[in-house]
Write a structure and sequence with these properties.
Length: 378
């Protein structure tokens, strides 16, 4: 369990230091920490914090927390999006092409309700993740994963979650001042609990490999290490004898997620263009006009999904080389002043473009092999 007393005193310490801080870099780290502490306290699930605020929400119909969150929401927005990253017409066109390619791949049907419920247990979930990182066979990644998995104060098992995050079964918060990653898990009692926990641990690994602050690093690619590890973890679960049908649903969920995100992004762009009366043959300038941070974030997440799929394929072909590339990705700072270039991990834009057409074949290929070996029918 998180040490709430410790987090609270760190929060007070950082709040005080921010008041007197004149160095902008240091101030950024302090503010990032403050945002994390406040989120930690909101999501701690203890009566003193989450319980208290939830009770207050009921009384004041959310006004109490809305006021408290408004101030921090602005700070969070400023920290991540105030300094815009480089995005020229070529790169924007590339992102739109990746999005369209994914949206056009053969649709993988998936719904949360397809996943069968069963009673999961946190101890077993965390042990499975530990087993995965051990089995992965990379000492450096394992060392960082242990920092999360073997430190009880890094992990919170919550019954409730807040700040509009009730849909998230896992959250990670990073403390840039004291260099610590905190994860929050809210289990849903199905196979997905395993993937969520393992995914959040990887956010911690990524943070411990290299702290990446939003003023220096091109923001939007933070899911690359986690999505890569999701693919590997799904294979691991199957190799450990988890119900192959349930594992297959995790694969379908991954493809379906990217396809749905691509379609949603297309729809939102279309809608905004119609509202601007620019729907007929929109130019790249017309699209640029309707862009906002959330749309850019979605486009970058789609590119991240494809990069992850590329890394997963690299690891399947040559485990050591693939894992080296994954680590290079995590240790690297992507300059905000130029188009993000991933050729240093063997994934230049041409390769990413080709891979974006293959989203969806991932779960279908595996489904075919399950049918062969088990007579799986649906
Ligand atoms: Zn994530």
């Amino acid at each position: 369990m998180w040490n709430i007393k410790d987090i609270n005193s760190k929060k007070d310490y950082v709040t005080e230091r921010i008041k007197h801080c004149t160095d902008s870099k240091e101030k950024e780290r302090l503010e990032l920490s403050l945002i994390s502490y406040l989120a930690l306290l909101d999501n701690s699930g203890t009566l003193r914090y989450t319980g208290f605020y939830n009770a207050m929400d009921k009384i004041t119909q959310n006004k109490f927390s809305a006021k408290r969150e408004q101030e921090n929401a602005q700070l969070e927005q400023d920290l991540f999006f105030k300094e815009e990253a480089f995005l020229d017409d070529d790169y924007l066109q590339f992102l739109l092409n990746v999005c369209n390619n994914i949206a056009e791949t053969p649709y993988v049907d998936f719904d949360e309700s397809y996943i069968s419920p069963f009673d999961t247990d946190y101890k077993n979930i965390l042990e499975t993740s530990y087993g995965f990182y051990t089995d992965l066979g990379d000492q450096e990644i394992l060392e960082q994963a242990k920092k999360v998995l073997t430190d009880e104060s890094s992990i919170n098992l919550a019954k409730t979650s807040r700040r509009g995050m009730t849909d998230c079964s896992g959250l990670t918060f990073n403390d840039y001042t004291f260099g610590k990653s905190y994860i929050n898990l809210t289990k849903k009692n199905n196979i997905f609990d395993y993937q969520v926990a393992n995914h959040e641990v990887m956010h911690g690994v990524d943070f411990y490999m290299q702290n990446k602050v939003p003023s220096e690093n091109y923001y939007g690619f933070h899911e690359v290490p986690t999505y890569t590890i999701d693919y590997l973890f799904i294979d691991y679960l199957e190799s450990k004898g988890m119900d192959a049908n349930e594992v297959q649903k995790l694969r379908m969920k991954k493809d379906n997620y990217l396809q749905e995100l691509a379609k949603l992004t297309q729809t939102q762009i279309k809608g905004a263009l119609i509202r601007n009366k620019k729907y007929n043959n929109p130019t790249i300038e017309d699209i640029r006009e309707i862009l906002h941070p959330q749309l850019i974030k979605q486009l970058l997440e789609l590119q991240s999904g494809v990069i992850s799929y590329g890394l997963y394929n690299q690891i399947k072909i040559d485990k050591q080389q693939g894992l080296e590339n994954l680590k290079s990705f995590m240790k690297n700072i992507l300059p905000k002043s130029q188009t993000p270039d991933f050729s240093f991990i063997g994934l230049d834009n041409q390769t990413i473009m080709e891979l974006s057409k293959q989203i969806g074949t991932y779960s279908m290929t595996n489904e075919a092999s399950i049918q062969e070996t088990q007579g799986f029918t649906r």
